[in-house]
Design brief:
The structure is a homodimer. By secondary structure, the first copy, chain A, is of the alpha/beta class. The first copy, chain A, is built from twelve helices and nine strands. In chain A, the strands form two sheets. The first copy, chain A, has a seven-stranded parallel sheet with strand order 5-2-6-1-7-8-9, with helices on both faces. A two-stranded antiparallel ribbon of chain A has the order 3-4. Chain A starts with 22 loop residues before the first helix and ends with a helix. At the A-B interface, helix 3, helix 6, helix 10, helix 11 and helix 12 of A face helix 3, helix 6, helix 10, helix 11 and helix 12 of B. Chains A, B: Keywords: Chaperone, GTP-binding, Hydrolase, Kinase, Nucleotide-binding, Transferase. Chains A, B: Belongs to the SIMIBI class G3E GTPase family. ArgK/MeaB subfamily. Chains A, B: This is LAO/AO transport system kinase. Chains A, B: One of its GO terms (molecular function) is kinase activity.
């Protein structure tokens, strides 16, 4: 990307050092890069609010991103996603790794930085500047999660997180999509959750790079593992392709977490070697660009002159104009405003 | 809307009689206008498939629309929406009124034209050309329900339906929005559904033009009616404004259905007199135009040259370009393609 690619006058269009960034914004960027929690929190709040101030800030952070290992963590309610997240945080912290957590699960106990179900253990992290925890609502974003999630990831990434855990409940379609754009996706299952793997929502099983059978000390875990193994063996997969391992954990007791981290490291190494790592990140960037462009266009629809739109709407209502013709005029007006 | 408003060469842009409609398309339009069920079904299938063929067809139908009384019917699962819909169909048919039914409730027994829960009663309608029943899935539409619903309504309307019942489960936001764009919105409640009106999803109660307490022969219906009455009296409402009545029904026995139709007729008369009828239809047309314009733009995003988009995505992935700058370029490319 050269300077010649960018149109004259669009100052924040290139990297590094976008002109026009205020002293306060520069300070915020520096503080976030240094991993100061309040700066990170302020940036993610800007992401949530879809603030206009975000644009130059994200431009300034762009060069600092791409380092974190983004780990998606999904599964039906009750499989132990939050407990597993807490166990992973602990294990990564023991290794001196800086961790970001982004929870999109509305029922997640990660709220306001506190893990309610596990409050005692989490209190140690409250004062640990090596852990950032943020819960985001999945509603109310003009661009949807597909805009907010990658931006929040990028903030954690620029703040020096080596690992970012993204916890989503494996129910909504957009939550599944987020988990699917991670570098490594963990699909959690647990015995006794009804009808075995049938209990997992369609679409969730396909995205698993690693299957985690949590609560593996309970009855039915062997049968569940057999079911998953059969499903994995049935999938059409080349000899060079990653074959999802099954890791047994009892997250509440910290069992199996080291093995899980080992499986994650393996997945990263193999994906980097095969090129699928970069390919998936390309896909993630493309998805994000598309979502952001659409959000911009959606905003422009809302900004259209109400009088003209009312005139079109009245013509459609009264049968004098068909809705496609009206939409074409609106589309052209939006295009002309870009 | 005059011919001068439309750009030269865009043949299907004006009404009536768009040039370029094939003989087969003209035949389909004529058959739909005559209320022939197969033609109506084919048009709604085209709506569901977001077919390109739809554009000239909808243009041809535009002048025939705007006559039907669109009645939204919403409420939590279990309140008796489908039974009430069936009872309304029967009562309207007794009055010689042609009825269309559009069900967006995934759990609705209206599927493939058959009402499972009430199959015996519905069999008489299967051969009744005065009733059109269609169930639509709420997923998979590029434009979402906000595009598909008004188009399907328009097909029923052009086919001569005097009344179109739109059944949505009062749970999803888009379902609530559809119910809210009806000419008259019925909010159904029933006693014994948990915590009285608290059981209704936030946002549903606000859109009711008429409240229906179904299963009114059961315990708790008086308490429920008192609750609704209190809620209605608390709402801020001018002396000229419509005050939602509460109608008691036992839909399974046909009780209260005549009163419900009377309340619907009252609502229509008063709304037409006050101008709110036309105002709401203006809002509906505006919402539809916006949704269709956005769907067009979304399609253009997908049609963008993959190579250029991949180049942008690679630059974003590698930190050489921030995602806003990339989205700006995509947005400009889309605008240039309109």
């Amino acid at each position: 990307m050269t300077a010649a690619d960018s149109p004259a006058g669009s100052g924040s269009d290139t990297e590094p050092d976008p002109p026009g960034l205020s002293a306060a914004a520069n300070e915020l960027i520096e503080a976030a890069r240094a991993g100061r929690p309040r700066a990170v929190a302020r940036l993610i709040t800007a992401v949530e609010n879809e603030s206009d101030a975000l644009r130059p800030l994200m431009a300034a952070l762009a060069a600092d991103t791409g380092r974190a290992h983004v780990i998606g963590l999904t599964g039906a309610p009750g499989v132990g996603k939050s407990t597993s997240t807490a166990a992973l945080i602990g294990a990564y912290r023991d290794r001196g790794v800086r961790v970001g957590v982004l929870a999109f699960d509305p029922s997640s106990p990660f709220t306001g930085g506190a893990l309610l179900g596990d409050r005692v253990r989490m209190q140690e992290y409250a004062l640990d500047s090596g852990v950032f925890i943020r819960s985001m609502a999945s509603r109310g974003h003009l661009g949807g999660l597909s805009v907010a999630a990658p931006q929040a990831l990028r903030v954690f990434d620029a703040a020096g997180c080596d690992v970012v855990l993204v916890e989503t409940v494996g129910v909504g379609q957009s939550e599944v999509e987020i988990a699917a754009t991670a570098d490594s996706t963990l699909v959690l299952l647990a015995p006794g959750m009804g009808d075995g793997i049938q209990a997992a929502k369609a679409g969730v099983l396909e995205i698993g790079d690693i299957f985690v059978v949590n609560k593996a000390d309970r009855d039915g875990s062997q049968a569940l593992i057999r079911e998953i193994r059969t499903m994995i063996s049935l999938a059409d997969r080349g000899p060079e392709e990653w074959r999802p391992p099954i890791v047994r954990t009892v997250a509440s007791a910290g069992e199996g977490i080291d093995e899980l981290i080992g499986a994650l490291d393996n997945h990263r190494s193999q994906a980097e070697a095969s090129g699928s790592w970069q390919q998936r990140r390309l896909h993630r960037a493309r998805t994000e660009i598309e979502a952001l462009a659409l959000a911009t266009l959606r905003r422009r629809v809302r900004l259209q002159d109400g009088t003209e739109l009312d005139r079109l709407a009245a013509a459609v209502r009264d049968g004098g104009l068909d809705v496609y013709a009206a939409a074409d005029r609106l589309t052209r007006a939006i295009a002309a405003s870009v």
